[in-house]
Each structure stands twice: as C-alpha cells, then as structure tokens.
Amino acid sequence: MGLFWIPLLPLLGTVVPLLSSRFGRSFLALFTAIPPLLALLLLLQLAPSVFNGEVIYQSFDWIPLAGLSLTFRLDGLALLFALLILGIGLLVILYARYYLSAKDNMGLFYAYLILFMTAMLGIVLSGNLIQLWLFWELTSISSFLLISFWSHKSEARKGARMALTITGAGGLALLAGLLLVGKIVGSFDLSVVLASGDLLRQHAAYPVVLVLVLLGAFTKSAQFPFHFWLPHAMAAPTPVSAYLHSATMVKAGIFLMARFYPVLAGTELWFLIVSMTGLITLLLGAYVALFKHDLKGLLAYSTISHLGLITLLLGMNTQLSTVAAVFHIINHAIFKASLFMAAGIIDHESGTRDMRRLNGLWKYMPHTATLAMVAAASMAGVPLLNGFLSKEMFFAETLDQVTLGSLSWMVPVLATLGAVFSVAYSARFIHDVFFNGEPVDLPKTPHEPPRYMKVPVEILVALCLLLGIFPGVIVGPLLALASTSVLGGELPYYSLSIWHGFNLPLLMSFLAMLGGLIIYHNRRHLFRFQSQFPEPDAKLIFEWLVQRLVRLCSAIIDKLENGSLQRYVFLLLLAALVLMAGPMIDLNATLGHQSSMPVDTVSLIGALLLAAGAIATVILNRRRLVSLLTLSVVGLIVSLAFARFSAPDLALTQLSVEVVTMILLLLALFFLPQSTPKESNPRRLVRDLSLAGLIGGVIGTINYAMITRPLDSISGFFLENSKTGGGGTNVVNVILVDFRGMDTFGEVAVLGIAALGIFKLIVHMRLYMPSTDGNGLPWSPDRHPMMLAIVSQSLLPLALLVSVYIFLRGHNQPGGGFIAGLITSVAIIQQYIAHGVDWIKERLRINYQWMVASGLLIAGLTGIGSWFFGRPFLTSWFDYFSLPWVGKFELASAMVFDLGVYLTVVGATLLILANLGKLTTSHSPAAKENN
Amino acid sequence: MSHLLLMPVLLPLLAGALLLLWPGLGLALQRVIGVIASLSLVVVGLQLLALAASGDYHLYALGNWAPPFGIVLVLDRLSALMLVLTAVLAAFCLLYACQGTDRLGMNFHALFQFQLLGVNGALLTGDLFNLFVFFEILLLASYALLLHGGSRARSRAGLHYVIINLVGSAVFVLALATLYGVAGTLNMADLALKVAAAPVSDRPLYLAAGVLLLVVFGIKAAILPLLFWLPRAYTAASAPVAALFAIMTKVGIYAILRVFWLVFGTGDDPLQVELLAWVWPLALATLLLGGLGALGSLSLRTLTAYLVILSVGILLATLTLASPQALAAALFYLVHSTLMTAVFFLMADLIGRQRDQGYDRFHVQAGMNNRWLMAGLFFVAAISMAGLPPFSGFISKVWILHSVYSLEQGFWLWAVILFAGLLVLVALSRGGSAWFWSSPACEKQRPLNPVELLLVVVLLSASGLLSLNAEPVMGWMLLTAEQLMEPGAYLQAHPKVAELLPGGVWK
C-alpha cells in the first residue's frame, strides 16, 4: 500500500458522512471514522521503516511544466504530525458525535472535518513546495467552513471571515516565499530544498524569503501581531476548536518553521524574528488568558501563549531547544485537546462557558472535573505530567542562550514570568470552575455527559500521565526521530527523565508555581487593575477596518467611474495624445521627398470652405439644426474633393451617404431639444478646446508627413489586374466586389446589424410628439404637401431607373451596388416624407428585415458558388457573351454579389429611416389624440 | 480544396442571415437554427485545433487573390485556441439564453450569430483593414445584444459603450490610414516586412500608428484609462450576453498579441519594445483598479465586471514580459479567466433569481430558495476565481508567478497580483457571507431551472477539468507562445510576391 493513500483515504472519506446521514448519528460517526482509521493503520505499518531511518517517498507527475508534482514524503517530523492529526482526529470524531445536537447537520460537519484532516495530512506529507501550499490553502478554506458552521451566529460569520482573511493573506505571502525558494534552489522538491540550506542562507534574497515564509507561519500559528483571529475562531463548535485551533491547524505554522528549520534557521535574522515574536506572543497570551471569563477564551489565549513558547524555542537556534520544541508540540497537542473537550462538556452540560457563573461543578461532574484538572495541571507544568517535562527543557534552554549579549538574562526571567501566568490561569481554570462556591444561575443543572463523550478525554489525559511518568518509553523514540528530521542530522544529548536533581530549571518551575498561585490568590486586584483598560474587540476593529477599506474602494471607483461620457471620451483622447507625443517629437523630418502639386484656386476655396464649415459647426454646436447644416457643408466639400482628385466613386458614395445621414439626423433631431444647453464651464471649454486643437494638430502633422512621402503601395497591382483578373475597368468597384469582397461583405453586414440594433432600440419606443416646433410655432396643418407628394411620386421611377443604371454600370464605370442602394433608399424615403408612413405601408409591402437577410444570403451564396469550381470563397467569375440585338456583354459573378450588397444597403437604410419615421406618426401618443 | 478555415466566419454569417429571412420565424425554430450553428462552430473549432496542432500556418485566400493583394485568413495555434474558446463559451451562453432570455427582445439569435461572426473574423483575419471590419461587426452586434431586453440602464450603458467604441473606430481608421500611407499595404505579414525594413525617418510614423492601435485595442481590452465603459455595460447586459462578453476583452488582447508581436515584432530592432513599455505600467494600474473595484462593488455583476478588468491587467502585465514561459502562462490564464467570468455572470443571474428581492445586490437582505445549493455553487466558483487550490485559478496563478520570477519586473507583478488576490478573496468572502449566511427565510417558492443550473455547473467544472488536464493544455500554450514569438514562420507561410502566378492568382 502506498503512502499516498494516507491523505487519499480521508479525501475519499469526505463523501462518506454525506452519504451515510440516513443511518443515524452513531453509525454516521462510525462510518466516518473508518477511512481515517485505515489511514492510521497504514501509517503505523509504514512507521517501522521510518524508524529505521528511511524517508518514504512517492511521486506522481502532475504539471511538470509549472514545477508541480504530487509528491508525498514521510520522515520523522511528518510521521509525528500525521500521528497527531489522525489520532486526535479520530478522538474528535467520537467526541463530536455526542457534542453536536440533533438540529445540526452532522453529515456536513463531518465532511468538513474530514476535508480538513485531508488538508492537514497533505501539508505534513507534502514533498513538493507548491503542493504544500495547495494543502495549506485548503486548511484555510476548510477551517473557514468549520468556524462558520453555525452560520446563523454573527460572531461565527465574522470570526470565520477574519480567520480566512488573515490566514489567506499569510498564505499569499507564503506562496511568494515558496516560489522564491523554488527559484533559488531550482526545484520545488522538498528533499532537494532541504539539502540546499547553505545556498538559501547565503542568497541575497534570503531575508525576503525568510520574512515571506514566516508571515505564512505566523499568521497560521496566531503569532503576535496576527494572534487576534484565533480567539474569534472559538465561535466554532468545540470539537473544531479542540482539533483545529489547538492540536492541528495552528500547529501548521509551527510545522512549517520546523520543516524549513534545516534550511532557514541558524542565522541571526532567524533568531531575532522568530524568538522575539515567540517571546512576545508567549507573554501576551499568558497574560491575557488570565482575564478571560469565557472558558474557551482562556484556552484560546493559552494556546496562543504555548504556540509562542514553541516558536521561541524554534527561534533559539540551538539543537536542544529544537528538541524541546518538538516535545512541546506533542505535549501541548495532547493536553490542550483534552482541555477543549472538557470545556465543551462543561458548556454542553451546563449551558454556559462563563467562569463567573460556573462554580463548584465538582459536585455535579466529579469524573469530568478530575480529567480536566489533570489536563490543566499538565498545562501548568506540574511534575509527573507531560507539560512539566517540556517546560523544564524550555527553562534549561532559556538559561543557555547568549545571543542577546548582556541582555540574555532577560529571556529566562521573562520565560518564568510567562510560566507564572500560565500557572495562574490554569489555577483559575481549576478553581473557578470546579470549586469556588456554588454555580450562579445556570441555564441547566449540570451533570456528567454521556459515557462515550468522556472516552476521548480519558485517553488524552491518560497519555498526559503516561508521558509524564514514563517519557523515555512512551515518546522517546518518536521524539528522537522527529527531532532528527527537524535538525537534519545529529541529535544532541538530552535526558528525558523526570528527575534531574536540584537545578536552576527546577527552581524556575518552583517559582512559577508559587508565583502563579500567589497571583491567582490576589487576582481581584489584578482584575481591577486590568479593568481600567478598555478591552478592544478585535472583531469590531477588524470589521471596521475592512468596511473602511471597502468604502474607500467604492469611493475611488465612484470617483473614477462616475458615469460621465464626456470624461471617458476626454480620457480616451488624452491617452491617444500622450501616447502620440513620443513619436511626434522623434519625427524630425516631417516633410517627405514627394513634390507637392501646385495649389489652384478651386482647391484653395474648397479647403477654406471645409475649414469654415468645421469651425462653424463647433461654434454653432448648441444650435443643433444650424450646426447640422454647417456640418453638411463639410460633407459636401469632402465629396467635391473626391471628385476633384479623380475619385468619382468615392464622391458619389460620399454624396449619397451624406444625404441619408442628414435625413437620419433631421429625423432624430425632431425628437430632441433644438438647442444644447450650455453645460461646460469656461475651464472645461478651454480644456476641451486645447485637447481638440492638439489632437487636430497631431493628426494634421501625420497627414502632412504621410502625403509628402513617396508611396510604394499595392495599388499598382489592382490597376494592372482589374480588367484581366476582375473583369471590370472600374478599379474601385472591382476592389469592392472582388479583390476585397470580404471587406464589403463585412461592411454591409455592419450596416444590416446597425439597422437591427436601431430597430431593436426604437421598436417599442413611444415618443411624445411636440405639437409645436422649438420656437413655439405650431406645425403646418398640411403635413403632406401635395406639391411635394406629386413631384416625389413622379421622380420615383426616374430615381429607381438611375439606381439600376448606376448599379449595372458599376463594374466598369463609377457606380455599383452600394451607391445604387443608397440612391434607391433616398428615393423611397422621399415617398415616406411626402406621403407618410401609412400611405407607403399600403402600397409597398416589403419587409426590410427580409431584404437585409436576402441581400446577405445572396452575397454569401455567390461566394459559396466558387466552391463548385474548386476555388476559395468569393472567387469571381466573368465571361463575355453576345446575343442578337443586345450585342456583346459581360456576365460576372460579382454582379450577383453586388446585388446582395444593393439589397442589404436598401433594406438596412430603410429599416432605420422608416422606423424612425414611424415614431412620429400613427404610433405617437399625440397623433392618437388627434384621431 | 478545404474550406474549413472559412467556416467560423461563414457559418454564423449564413445562420444569422437565415434567422432574419422570415421576420415572423417562431422562437423554437430560431433556437434550433442558432444552437445547431453554435454547436457546429464547436466541432469546426476542434477540427481547426487539430489542424493547427502541426505547428504550420494555414492560409485561406478569400477571392483567390494572394496576399498582400487579397484578404487572407490565417490559422495558427493561437487563433485555433481562441476559436475553440469562443465556440465553447458561445454554446453555453446560447443554451442559457434559450431558457428565456432570448424571448425578451427581437432578433436575439441572429444578433448572437453576428456577434460570433465578428469575433471569429477578428481572430482569423490576416489583414489589418479586415480586422477593422470585423471589429465593427463585433461592436454593433454587441451593442444590439447589450440592448437586448431593454431598460433604462441598458440604453444608457449601451450609449456610452457605442460612442466610446465609435471614437475608437475613428482612431482605428486613422492608424490604418497612417500605416497604409507609409507602408502601402495592410496585409499583416507584408506590413511586418515593411515595418522591419523601415528607414529611420519613417519609424516615428509607424510608432504613431502603433500607439493609436494600442488605444484602439486598449478600449476593446479595457486598459486603464480606456476601460470606463466596461463596468456598467457588463453589469447592465442580460446574463448570457454578459457571459458572452467575457470573450470581448480577450479579443482586444488577441489583437494586441497579433499586431504587436507580428507587425511590430519582427526585425532586429522591433517597435514592439517601445509599445510594450507603455503597456506595462498601465496594465499594473489596471490590475490594481480591478482589485479595488472588486472590493468596492455592491453587486455580484459589478464585482465580476471588475474581475474582468483585473484579469485584463494580469494578462497584459504578464504578456509584456515577453518570455515564452510568461506568454504561455498568460494564455492559460486567458482561458481560465474567460470561462470563470462567464460562470460568474450566469451564476449571478441564477442566484439573483432565487432571491426574494435585490437580485444580485449584496447589501439587500433577502430570502433565498435552494440556499445551500446556491451557496455550494458560489463557494466553488469563488475558490476558482480567487485562485485558491485546487481549481484552474490556482494553477494559472502559480504558473504566472513561476514564469515571471526571473524577470526584472517580476517583483512588481508578484506584489500586485498577490495583493489584488487578497482583495478579491475578501470581496468574495464578504459577498458570499452576506448572501448565504444572514439571509432571512424566503417568502416565495421560486422554481430553479435545472437546465440553467446544469449549464453553470458544467461550465464551472471546466475549471476543474482545466486544472486536472493542465499539463497537456500548458504544453499547447507553450508551443503557442513559441510560435507567436517566432513571427518569421508566419511571414514565410505567405507567398512571395515575385513567386505568384501572373495576375496574383495563388496556387
């Protein structure tokens, strides 16, 4: 059986509780326990070879390209942690069976719990850094789910969010740190990394790596100043607190430090950061714990304090301190888990966790009280219990270190001070809860819990005793094994006996006991002193900070994205201008080598008119109708310019586009205010004018530079091949329907889509039709003047004839489907204007949408036609035929394509214009009223 | 000859035209035509993917005119990848829309096909002017789709969207005119040769055209300061449309990749370097803005819109680092973020309609039907989006960080990505807990459409699938990146003008 089954079994096990909910709570718990139990057996089966000094290793490729593989690695440290995780996990499963009430969704709870177990096993068994991080984040997520299990409670939600945010932030730092390690070492494989200690420590990036990795560890293990999330995570059900927040998850940070101990420790920086953080956390946690009235609050701060102790030990950089750290990891996990479980029992059976109300429980639950008292004594470091042993080692180590120079004496003193408080709060736990008078106003009468709820506590407490009395036999080999893998080599000499003779550490223990009891006895003074300080609620502060941040973000976003189109367009143009500045400055020789044409009067007048039209449009822009007229001057001059410079097709197109656009704009203007209100302040006017002027200047400069350069373009090819290859002498048209037929196809599609879009926008629109014009004058009662009607009606056949002519000659002479389409549209629009929509509707039963579609289809099918000749889409065909009377004529597939273009143009234009026109007539409310 | 290469353009074009042909065509028939066309695009896309796998370039000369004279469609690994992504995304969006969104206005199906026509054309074309044409199709179709369903917010957002993009089109034309005025050609391969061989005096003009194109593509891709049209447009659009729009910013990025790596990326001293120097700081700022916006959002759709902005920032910042590894990682992220954006928009709709009131707004407390199902869905999607393991978000984040480390600017990217990631984590956990934890009992039973749920779940599981099969996908991305960074082969795939048959007929 492979190593990977150890995390895999619990992972598969997550579905077990979800599936077995219907078998009742006991069976549910039993089934849930099976996969972890199997994993534990498997672990025990693998253990002997680890004890023989082997490192069991198993690897599967996952994503080698990103350095990711699934690698599992079992050494002494991993074995120790895996045993703790699985062992305590199984006890917690049993305990939770009795702790959770019938209202709780037990299956879901167990699923989360087992998921968490998988994640923890994944962390400790990872042989790959990224994989380690993956499971690391998974613990954050699953602990989020577990803390918030009672999600109807506000403190559970806030506590969960806080834990996720803090550990999540630490996780991101850790990711950065691990990636850096991987890059420096050249591999994410843990074995390789562990062998590269010197490389890492001497690397220039070592401080960065260290800080990032430690950020991950400190946030997870609730080290100062990130400790504040842990007490709020106590909103979780107590089994969760016992498992995650004392025995396992918070130890993940410690595990991380131990794991990287061989490669990151041993430097001055490590000592400073790690040991000082540990020391502060140790003192702070121990001190605050004493003042917590909530049982779990006391235990939470005590956990913080003990985690600080382990961190301090790891930070001391000596071999013996490291052994002590590993030993304390074991001891703390055992006694703290049992204490949490005892606290849970008390809460469960008495209805409160408030130590001001819980008094004298000894009478009600002597069995539980005994267990809790033994565990608390172990926490206090009373001899013959396991807590005593590691605390002795800790004291001995604080005496031995000299790194702080002349201030080194402070470390043992402060350590003793921490121990004093530790004894004091342990005493409070025992005395306040089980003795100290009678209970005050409890919600229910306390009694012993169900038999099996006590079993896990009994097992753990028995371990406390066994370990305390026979340390060498029970834990000696495992401790040695785990310490060896942390130290990465030789083990120092140490003795696990209970009695080392009268020495300084024993004196410190004695002082701590004495001091602790004295402090507890005089606690009232201390409580009064402490009550002068306001007690900050980290949850409130944290929520406040997050809300401030959220509001700040909202404010920034609102400021930037303020819904002003003017601002967005300004930014757009400004961006273009700023980006253009560089190349414009580099453009030294604006003038190219092309000689310019002589300026003639006609062109000059045209140019002046063009400029005048543009400027007038800007000046008169607030009088919309007038500015529309001046704008049309611009369009007209552009058409003339095309004609002047030998581009009759363009001139024709521009002209007809101009006409259609003007009609469209006039129609739109009908519904809009006739003048634009003055909205811009002078500053903005100057700003906008400067920007527009600068943009114009830059574009003009580029234009000038461009047209004065000789152009070697592909247009020569079109001129040469227009007749021979495309069958037409009008090169522009051949380009449109043949050389670049796809562009034309696309553009008419654009026209059609635009028409559909506009149709969609206005189809249900009902606009109020003003009964007067902008100046308050009523409209003429003669809405369809007869003159106009008759003239336009008689012009219609002529116009249609012209468009047919323009269409047919397009391939060889100026013209083509596009222009013809526009002319037809204008002619029909003319009828709409002259006769009104209803009149046309009766006579012209064409659906314009259908026209657009058939135009597109005709063009598309023409293109497909070339497939049958083994040619690509849109390949043109033409040939010359002769018929009697008609003479020689040309047939070209491009004509059919052009027909499609024609239909789409007509359809699209009329779809827009006719529907805009409809808004004014029978459908508008004003017209209805008249009827 | 095979016309497969044309299909991504022709299929939606004909389907769209067909859907318009009978104005009274029943919705059922419209759906059938639309779905068939959309699913065929997936098949075509996969075939093209197989075709592109050889690493060769495949050309399709429209009208049988050889480039640079005619318009040519070019298939390589990148365009094939994007085509498949578009087709898959579109299929999901369309099926979702068929559950009722398409009923809210006219011609939804035709416009949807035209939208695909625009996107696919822009992905395939090898001609800059043709790219402009397809951009126009894409713009107008998306405008019409944005209006679908009609509302004040949609009309307003649509107006901003279309006006900003039309200004962008004007800038596009200016850039094209400049390029044609100097180089005399607009075929990308031909243009690349011209730009590479440009005399020093012409370089500023090319650069000017280049920065104008950066503005144009920047509007589409949504780079700061050109992105302000995006949040409201994406928030206002109906769910399947917003989900489809997930590909739109990516088309802008695709255009940047295509044009800056090919047209401005060949030769000894490519202009690309100067252009990308601009992109880098703007991308980082975009990324940061996305993170801030996500945290400051009041609704899930706005949040998603800012996540789109964030993803654009990550993508562009990674792209500019211009190493094959970074490029490949960015492409992987592109696929992930596109799919996840779509999941989020659809999910916002799905969850919003299960709520008694407030739709997708976070600060409105309302009862929710199927609360735990919705919560589970949101939870998994949020994990993937926030880049937590084990979904594709995690893989792509790790790969990006991994691939940019050795580069000088990598540090900044790391810092900004990780910081923004934290903001997203906070935003999502706040949003989720506001919805699922503190909601009162629901007042009214609301049916949950199983098809909609299934579509979202399947699309979401694509994220897991992407993570499981990351290795082959990453392999493809690496080859794609290498192909992109060696534009020489692209140029060689095009015929030399001298070798053409008389009359420019090709092959």
From TrEMBL, chain A:
Coiled coil segments of this chain: none
Domain MrpA C-terminal/MbhE: 684-773
Domain NADH:quinone oxidoreductase/Mrp antiporter transmembrane, chain residue ranges per copy: 126-400
Name of the protein this chain belongs to: Multicomponent K+:H+ antiporter subunit A
Annotated localization: Cell membrane; Membrane
GO cellular component terms given for this protein: plasma membrane
Domain NADH-Ubiquinone oxidoreductase (complex I) chain 5 N-terminal, chain residue ranges per copy: 62-110
Residue stretches making up the MrpA C-terminal/MbhD domain: 610-674
InterPro entries, sorted: CPA3_Na-H_Antiporter_A, MnhB, MrpA_C/MbhD, MrpA_C/MbhE, ND/Mrp_TM, Proton_antipo_N
Lipid bilayer topology: Multi-pass membrane protein
Segments forming domain Na+/H+ antiporter MnhB subunit-related protein: 787-910
GO-annotated molecular function: antiporter activity
Residue stretches spanning the membrane: 27-47, 77-96, 108-127, 133-150, 162-185, 205-230, 242-263, 269-291, 298-316, 322-346, 367-389, 409-427, 459-482, 502-520, 568-589, 601-620, 625-645, 651-673, 685-707, 748-767, 788-808, 814-834, 846-869, 889-914
One Pfam family this sequence matches: MbhE
UniProt keyword terms in alphabetical order: Antiport, Cell membrane, Ion transport, Membrane, Transmembrane, Transmembrane helix, Transport
GO BP annotations, alphabetical order: monoatomic ion transport
From TrEMBL, chain B:
Pfam families xref list: Proton_antipo_M (PF00361)
InterPro entries attached to this UniProt entry: CPA3_Na-H_Antiporter_D, NADH_UbQ_OxRdtase, ND/Mrp_TM
GO biological process per UniProt: ATP synthesis coupled electron transport
GO cellular component entries: plasma membrane
Locations listed in the record: Cell membrane; Membrane
Topology with respect to the bilayer: Multi-pass membrane protein
UniProt keyword annotations, A-Z: Cell membrane, Membrane, Transmembrane, Transmembrane helix
NADH:quinone oxidoreductase/Mrp antiporter transmembrane domain span: 126-416
Transmembrane segments: 6-25, 32-54, 74-97, 104-123, 129-147, 159-186, 206-229, 241-263, 275-296, 303-322, 328-351, 372-391, 411-429, 450-470
GO molecular function, one term: NADH dehydrogenase (ubiquinone) activity
PANTHER family: NA(+)_H(+) ANTIPORTER SUBUNIT D1 (PTHR42703:SF1), NADH DEHYDROGENASE (PTHR42703)
Similarity comment: Belongs to the CPA3 antiporters (TC 2.A.63) subunit D family.
Name of this chain's protein: Multicomponent K+:H+ antiporter subunit D
Record lineage: Bacteria, Pseudomonadati, Pseudomonadota, Gammaproteobacteria, Oceanospirillales
